[in-house]
């Protein structure tokens, strides 16, 4: 429609401007909209449009298809839409009941209450045991996936829910939605997804599923911090809180989470809750995240330091790119992540390194035969050096925006003498004939 300022679009019922802005930010963060000002829809965004779902879930389904684990992702999306299906029963506080003076009770009443307490204890043990069978140590969502997969394998029976402490109504809704999603995906992507015989994910698939979950909730990321005792000012041992990526909200992993007892440094989450009974905010739907995933999956939330001097930049022949190491910063509060290697940012220094690696014979090995004849060492190109020889090789590369081997070969196909005159300035006249013989040095 060519609309660039969605906030000003004349909706029949005008939505809250803050909600519109928040939605646009989410779409930018997950890569559905271009972050460069005009909110242009991206290729990913156009693909997501095919799914009448939350954009997060649409992205997850696309990644699931690409990774050949669409059946598992369909189940996860269905559970996220309906909610946690694992039943949690409040059995009361037996310890408080024991404090009541039994001398005031009739013997039959005491025996009855004792039997009821034992029954509750046994029921609690059964529920805990049932929950353990779904356990996946790195993600609540994968626990839910295990429960849903077992339910489907059982024939989606109500008795299975009763025996395994699962919400019967929720499981029915999840089952129904999974089949709707299956039909939708089969129609849109022309693939045959079999959710009836879905097998538990193996270790490699579990890793991929965690990455897909992170990609869908790439802005719902929280970072672990130690809890400080306000009285002593010291860290409280084995107690942690989290700060959320976008708003720096202080929150705690909910005790129902599989990760509550072993909180990882970074997590993604489905949602936050703030119960009226407490001032704390709790995190639900938790998945452990590796910090290096954030740079790859959360590109739109990353900024970078200047290229670092060490480790030194290099040319990667497989990627045909000059690479450098930088410090990534994640989100609006600039969380510092581990140093990573990226393509050297486009600029004069990138061209200098490309020219240096070219002269050193790293890009085209035939150039190595001249390494002992250079009038100036090519390494000076990437230092505080200026002169005619530098501009003789840098300027042509800049003019034609050439910083890869592929681009250089392409221009040589049109002009085989490109860059020859500039390289001659780096060599004594006696080597000019030898250079011309091997030029272009393919």
List the helices and strands and how they pair.
Elements: H1 17-29, H2 43-48, H3 55-66, H4 70-82, H5 94-98, H6 107-132, H7 140-153, H8 158-164, H9 168-189, H10 203-216, E1 221-228, E2 235-244, E3 250-253, E4 266-268, E5 271-273, E6 282-284, E7 287-289, H11 291-297, E8 302-304, E9 314-316, E10 321-326, E11 328-330, E12 335-336, E13 340-343, H12 348-359, H13 388-399, H14 405-414, H15 420-424, H16 432-438
Parallel strand pairs: 3-6
Antiparallel strand pairs: 1-2, 1-4, 2-3, 4-7, 5-6, 8-11, 9-10, 10-13, 11-12
Helix pairs in contact: 3-4, 3-10, 4-7, 4-9, 12-13
Structure notes:
42% of the residues lie in helices and 12% in strands. Mean pLDDT is 88; it is low at 93-104. The chain has helices at residues 17-29, 43-48, 55-66, 70-82, 94-98, 107-132, 140-153, 158-164, 168-189, 203-216, 291-297, 348-359, 388-399, 405-414, 420-424, 432-438; strands spanning 221-228, 235-244, 250-253, 266-268, 271-273, 282-284, 287-289, 302-304, 314-316, 321-326, 328-330, 335-336, 340-343. The chain starts with 16 loop residues before the first helix and ends with a helix. The protein is built from 16 helices and 13 strands. The strands form three sheets. The chain has a seven-stranded mixed beta sheet. A three-stranded antiparallel beta sheet has the order 8-11-12, with no helix packed on it. Helix 4 (70-82) crosses helix 9. Strand 5 (271-273) and strand 6 (282-284) form a beta hairpin. The chain is of the alpha+beta class.
């Amino acid at each position: 429609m060519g609309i660039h300022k969605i906030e000003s679009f004349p909706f029949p019922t005008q939505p809250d401007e803050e909600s519109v802005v928040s939605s646009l930010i989410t779409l930018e963060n997950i890569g559905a909209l271009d972050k460069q000002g005009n909110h242009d829809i991206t290729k990913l965004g156009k693909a997501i449009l095919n799914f009448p779902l939350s954009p997060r879930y649409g992205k997850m389904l696309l990644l699931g298809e690409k990774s050949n684990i669409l059946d598992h992702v369909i189940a996860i999306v269905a559970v996220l839409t309906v909610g946690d299906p694992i039943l949690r029963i409040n059995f009361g506080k037996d310890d408080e009941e024991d404090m009541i003076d039994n001398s005031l009770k009739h013997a039959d009443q005491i025996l009855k209450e004792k039997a009821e307490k034992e029954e509750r204890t046994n029921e609690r043990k059964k529920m805990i045991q049932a929950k353990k069978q779904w356990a996946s140590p790195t993600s609540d969502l994968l626990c839910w996936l295990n429960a849903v997969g077992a339910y489907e394998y059982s024939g989606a029976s109500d008795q299975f829910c009763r025996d395994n402490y699962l919400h019967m109504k929720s499981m029915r809704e999840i089952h129904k939605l999974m089949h709707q999603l299956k039909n939708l995906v089969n129609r849109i992507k022309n693939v045959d997804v079999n959710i009836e015989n879905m097998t538990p994910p193996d270790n490699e698939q579990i890793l991929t599923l965690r990455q897909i979950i992170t990609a869908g909730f790439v802005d719902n990321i929280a970072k672990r911090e130690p809890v400080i005792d306000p009285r002593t000012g010291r860290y409280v041992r084995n107690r942690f809180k989290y700060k959320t990526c976008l708003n720096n909200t202080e929150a705690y992993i909910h005790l129902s989470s599989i990760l509550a007892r072993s909180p990882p440094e970074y997590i993604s989450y489905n949602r936050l809750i703030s119960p009226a009974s407490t001032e704390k905010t709790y995190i639900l739907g938790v998945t452990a995240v590796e910090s290096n995933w954030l740079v790859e999956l959360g590109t739109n939330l990353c900024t970078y330091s200047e290229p670092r001097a060490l480790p030194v930049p290099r040319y990667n022949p497989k990627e045909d790119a000059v690479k450098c190491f930088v410090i990534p910063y994640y989100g609006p509060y600039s969380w510092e992540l581990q140093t990573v290697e990226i393509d050297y940012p486009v600029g004069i220094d990138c061209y200098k390194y490309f020219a240096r690696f070219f002269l050193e014979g790293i890009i085209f090995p035939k150039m190595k035969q001249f390494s002992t004849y250079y009038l100036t060492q090519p390494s000076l190109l990437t230092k505080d050096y200026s002169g005619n020889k530098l501009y003789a090789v840098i300027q042509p590369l800049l003019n034609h925006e050439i910083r890869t081997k592929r681009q250089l070969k392409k221009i040589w196909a049109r002009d085989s003498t490109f860059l020859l005159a500039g390289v001659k300035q780096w060599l004594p006249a006696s080597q000019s004939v030898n250079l011309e013989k091997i030029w272009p040095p393919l």
